[in-house]
Amino acid sequence: MIEPREPLLTDHAVEQFVGRLLQIGVGLSAAVVIVGGVMLLVHHGSEVPNYATFAGEPESIRSLCGIVQGVLAADSRSIIQFGLLLLIATPILRVAFTWIAFVLQRDRVYVFITSIVLILLLYGLIYGRA
Amino acid sequence: MTILTITILVLLGAFAAGLLGSLTGLGGGLIIVPMLTLLFKVDLRYAIGASLVSVIATSSGAAAAYVREGYTNVRVGILLEVGTVIGALVGAALAGITPTNVLAILLGAVLLITTYRALRPRPAHAILTTPDKWSERLRLDSTYPTATGKQAYSVTNVPAGLGLMFLAGILSALLGIGSGVVKVLAMDQMMRLPFKVSTTTSNFMIGVTAAASAGVYLHRGYIDPTIALPVMLGVLGGALLGARILNRANVKWLRTLFTVVVIVMGVQMLYKGIMGSI
Hints:
Helix content of chain B: over 70%
Oligomer: heterodimer
Number of strands of chain B: 2
Helix content of chain A: over 70%
Order of helices and strands of chain A: HHHH
Strand order of the largest sheet of chain B: 1-2
Radius of gyration of chain A: 19 Å
Shape of chain B: globular
Number of domains of chain B: 1
């Protein structure tokens, strides 16, 4: 077995950084959701919704482009959905940083394994088909 | 009920779920779907979408504290995520064609099995120190901190662990749960990782697994912002408070309370599923 080269980043240093990243992601997402939530309650708080029958969300808050357009138009539901999108992206970003760390460590096996996970996650988020 | 009333009530319920889930270590995600469907009459698909979002929030929120302690095994986590993420995408595909009453029966069964396992004493195992073929090739062996310094450990049964992770991914997507119980079972009992390493690595994986299916559900219109909003903020707030008061709280009676809640909801989900009224 060939001795691995001295890693540029230790696993532990990467984890520390990634842990911080996750906290920031969750904090940011919660802040966006709260802003959207306050706007929603102010504008639509007295409406009576129907959650008992599944109709599916409108197309505008189901696609990434639609959500961004809604945010620009200051639509409260789109802002909440954007916050949730940030939250879903946080663990994916974590995997992306783990991938970079393995590249820097020149660990080919784990670059490959992490690539598979990352591709599957991005596929799910961008194409939305399973 | 108006949006305002529902938001406040769901926020309170989700806060309690997050708090109890965090104090008992069972996770709040487990009872979000039953709470939303049974108490608030929310459609099962919206409930699953909102629950998955809260699972990502608590997993990511708690991870920062765990990694600092140096227990998480990143290589084991990433490797097993191949299994959970493929499972989650398969589960998301299956969710679209599975009748909701079948999902309800499955969730009821998972709730009851989880409580059964949590109530039984955990069979302890010795730390493995001789590396096996897979563990050596994939460099899964590592160390973890103990009272007497760093303890080296090895890993076994990697292919079987991956298989069980695939199942954990399917369950996570189908039912909107973190399926931490299955993940810990695979790592602790099957792959023989130290218990503390298993639980923290499981938490590391839960967010990634849930993100895979949540992305799909967002496109499919399962994620309703007005339901996900109070669920996410409530569970997150409850879990953060739980982590803070864990050392001071009397966990024993809270654990009993949570167990009773989970059993009641599990039985109700089973009943409604079998009667086809969900």
